[in-house]
Amino acid sequence: MKLIIATIKPFKLEEVREALTEIGVRGMMVTEIKGFGSQSGHTEIYRGAEYAVNFVPKVKLELVVPAGMSDQVIETITKTAQTGKIGDGKIFVLDVQQAIRVRTGETDADAI
């Protein structure tokens, strides 16, 4: 099993969710986050005053999928979330040693 952590632009969330559902992803966790990468934030003007926005709003997706499905999930997220502009996000992939469904006690692939 693989844990896929993806950070994407918030307005792409619904499009990515729909694309993942189409390929058979059955669940994911979504968190609203703030962060910065190579863009290092930006400046904005509010009521005539300029101020720095050091953290940019993002959405973090966390999905646990069977190892054989991870490449397809990564490709789907990449294609769907991409705008071609700076700040499109990142994807990280980690190995998952064990998964347990709390309600039933099912483990590993049965739990996801």
UniProtKB/TrEMBL annotation:
<keyword id="KW-0547">Nucleotide-binding</keyword>
<dbReference type="InterPro" id="IPR002187">
    <property type="entry name" value="N-reg_PII"/>
</dbReference>
<comment type="subunit">
    <text>Homotrimer.</text>
</comment>
<dbReference type="InterPro" id="IPR002332">
    <property type="entry name" value="N-reg_PII_urydylation_site"/>
</dbReference>
<comment type="similarity">
    <text>Belongs to the P(II) protein family.</text>
</comment>
<protein>
    <recommendedName>
        <fullName>Nitrogen regulatory protein P-II</fullName>
    </recommendedName>
</protein>
<dbReference type="InterPro" id="IPR017918">
    <property type="entry name" value="N-reg_PII_CS"/>
</dbReference>
<keyword id="KW-0805">Transcription regulation</keyword>
<dbReference type="GO" id="GO:0030234">
    <property type="term" value="F:enzyme regulator activity"/>
</dbReference>
<keyword id="KW-0804">Transcription</keyword>
<comment type="function">
    <text>P-II indirectly controls the transcription of the glutamine synthetase gene (glnA). P-II prevents NR-II-catalyzed conversion of NR-I to NR-I-phosphate, the transcriptional activator of glnA. When P-II is uridylylated to P-II-UMP, these events are reversed. When the ratio of Gln to 2-ketoglutarate decreases, P-II is uridylylated to P-II-UMP, which causes the deadenylation of glutamine synthetase, so activating the enzyme.</text>
</comment>
<feature type="modified residue" description="O-UMP-tyrosine">
    <location>
        <position position="51"/>
    </location>
</feature>
<dbReference type="GO" id="GO:0005829">
    <property type="term" value="C:cytosol"/>
</dbReference>
<dbReference type="InterPro" id="IPR015867">
    <property type="entry name" value="N-reg_PII/ATP_PRibTrfase_C"/>
</dbReference>
<dbReference type="GO" id="GO:0005524">
    <property type="term" value="F:ATP binding"/>
</dbReference>
<dbReference type="Pfam" id="PF00543">
    <property type="entry name" value="P-II"/>
</dbReference>
<keyword id="KW-0535">Nitrogen fixation</keyword>
<dbReference type="InterPro" id="IPR011322">
    <property type="entry name" value="N-reg_PII-like_a/b"/>
</dbReference>
<dbReference type="GO" id="GO:0006808">
    <property type="term" value="P:regulation of nitrogen utilization"/>
</dbReference>
<keyword id="KW-0597">Phosphoprotein</keyword>
